[in-house]
Amino acid sequence: LQVTVTDPRTVALLFQPVLLRCRYQTVALDPPIVTWKYKSFCPTPQGDNGIVTSPGDVPDVTSPCPDAARTIRIVATKQGGSVTLGDFYRGRSVTILGEAELSLGPAAWGDSGVYICTVTSTQDLEGNNEAVAELVVLGEA
């Protein structure tokens, strides 16, 4: 099993549709389970509100922080042709397209963060089963 993200960092405008591309290769015959999970960026010491108004304001994602300091939630899961949305995303135009591409449209303030594409197969346990994509949503300057 090999999972990759085409664009590890995506910058999008507020209210524009976003597509995070995740691809996988597997030797499994049955379709795997694809899960997209969201993690907020690490909070800044000065209590940044997370609103980004220009590319220079992009959060520093290189500094690690414990998961307890982040907001973490399941965005969507796909098994076969069935997509299930996490509670926070119900009622929004969010889905998994194709094999594993996450469609978030239109982008909202709270969508900036780290997205983890995880592919699970009981028939293919070798290799790397997840990849990470960062999303930064920019507002109007």
UniProtKB/TrEMBL annotation:
Q: Which InterPro entries match?
A: Ig-like_dom, Ig-like_dom_sf, Ig-like_domain-LISCH7, Ig-like_fold, Ig_sub
> In which domain of life is the source organism classified?
Eukaryota
* Any single GO CC term annotated in Swiss-Prot or TrEMBL for this entry: membrane
**SMART domains per UniProt:** IG
All residue ranges annotated as the Ig-like domain in the record: 16-133
Q: Which PROSITE patterns match?
A: IG_LIKE (PS50835)
Q: What is this protein called?
A: LSR protein
Source organism: Burhinus bistriatus
- Upper lineage: Eukaryota, Metazoa, Chordata, Craniata, Vertebrata
